Amino acid sequence: xxxxxxxxxxxxxxxxxxxxxxxxxxxxxxxxxxxxxxxxxxxxxxxxxxxxxxxxxxxxxxxxxxxxxxxxxxxxxxxxxxxxxxxxxxxxxxxxxxxxxxxxxxxxxxxxxxxxxxxxxxxxxxxxxxxxxxxxxxxxxxxxxxxxxxxxxxxxxxxxxxxxxxxxxxxxxxxxxxxxxxxxxxxxxxxxxxxxxxxxxxxxxxxxxxxxxxxxxxxxxxxxxxxxxxxxx
Length: 233
Hints:
Distance between the termini: 75 Å
Strand content: 15-25%
Helix content: 10-25%
Structural class: alpha+beta
Low-confidence stretches: 1-5, 7-20, 49-59
Number of helices: 4
Shape: globular
Radius of gyration: 27 Å
Largest sheet: 8 strands, antiparallel
Number of domains: 2
CATH superfamily of the largest domain: Umud Fragment, subunit A
CATH topology of the largest domain: Umud Fragment, subunit A
Mean pLDDT: 81
Number of strands: 12
CATH class of the largest domain: Mainly Beta
């Protein structure tokens, strides 16, 4: 006859290594926390949701409201865009044609700005060729698909070499945009440090009727790489 004591159901559930013990402990902890909060579980749930949204906003995606007409016709005043803050993490860098949001403190002004990347580090950007187009590394860029109707590539001629780690940015509404052209004589020459880029604007999410995915124009696809660009990705 087997006289070894068999563990009862109560013994198994109370054993510290039993499956589910950790989960029940966490549940009990949350229940106790809810008891101390006004509103109980509803308040606790709101706090958890708020913490999640704050983490999402800080590290993953951030909403941004378009403050001016400098990026029309694609981005209108009051549009809300979602800024992808992971786009340039893990070694990725802004590319020509990207619409970026950046901190302009010390370069443009004490605010965040949205512009299109026209030149990256090492690029030679010139305006304009005989057909009034911008040239990047000797290749003309046809911007008609995104420029504001009636705008030229630039009313101000320029010939710039973009330093490594910097970006030359322009608004799509060239006649209503204060951008790299207007700060060529300022500290930094109007070039934005890549470290000041908050992220890439990927979606227009409001108003609902203007909901769309922002893609990189094909106009920049044939621009030859700047010296050293391939080596840095």
